[in-house]
Amino acid sequence: MIESLREFTEGLPTVIQWLGVLLASAIPFVESYFGSAIGVLAGLSPFVAIPVAIIGNGASMAILVLTAARVRKSATKNGTAEPSPRRERLKRMFDRFGVPGVSLLGQTVLPSQITSMAMVSFGASRNAVIGWQLVSIALWGIAFGTLATLGIDVFAT
User: Fold this and answer.
1) Are 35 and 57 in contact (CB under 8 A)?
2) pTM of the predicted protein model
3) Residue 154 CB neighbour total at 10 angstroms
């Protein structure tokens, strides 16, 4: 199956190959980690697949963070509503681990787009969230792209 994917991918123009990885990486739950692995397994050089996956995931995350920041600003103009018990629990976890902890570890549970919007909704600085999420996206993309390059089957189990 991987060989068929590689043959199909190699027949496409280079720009389309890159665009495919970029768009796939912008999808929540695919992210930079699976996007870079998909690119490598499809036959792209890891020196192309990994950065393109990071850019795709980072761009979608940044757009959503900026949107969430605008929504929060307009929603909090007239005061805040009473938070639900679930939201209070998420807020306590955010307070415990902070932006760096949630950014680096949050991708093991939820996509970066969701965790970053949640942090902004809790009042975290949009610039801090974007910065730490980009670090996290890059680290996860490099790790999974490297594993795919080395031929380790990270999709088993």
Assistant:
1) yes
2) 0.83
3) 13
Q: How far apart are CA 25 and CA 31, in angstroms?
A: 4
Q: At residue 35, what are phi and psi to the nearest 5 degrees?
A: -60, -45
Instruction: List pLDDT tens digits, range 47-97.
Output: 999 999 999 999 999 999 999 999 888 877 776 666 677 667 777 878 898
User: What is the Cα–Cα distance from 58 to 103, expressed in whole angstroms?
Assistant: 12
Contact 123, 80 (CB under 8 A): no
Q: Which residue has the tokens 């999808």?
A: 27
**CA distances (Å), origin 16, targets 22, 23, 31, 141:** 10, 10, 18, 20
109 and 90 Cβ atoms separated by less than 8 Å: no
- Residue range 118-145: mean pLDDT, rounded: 94
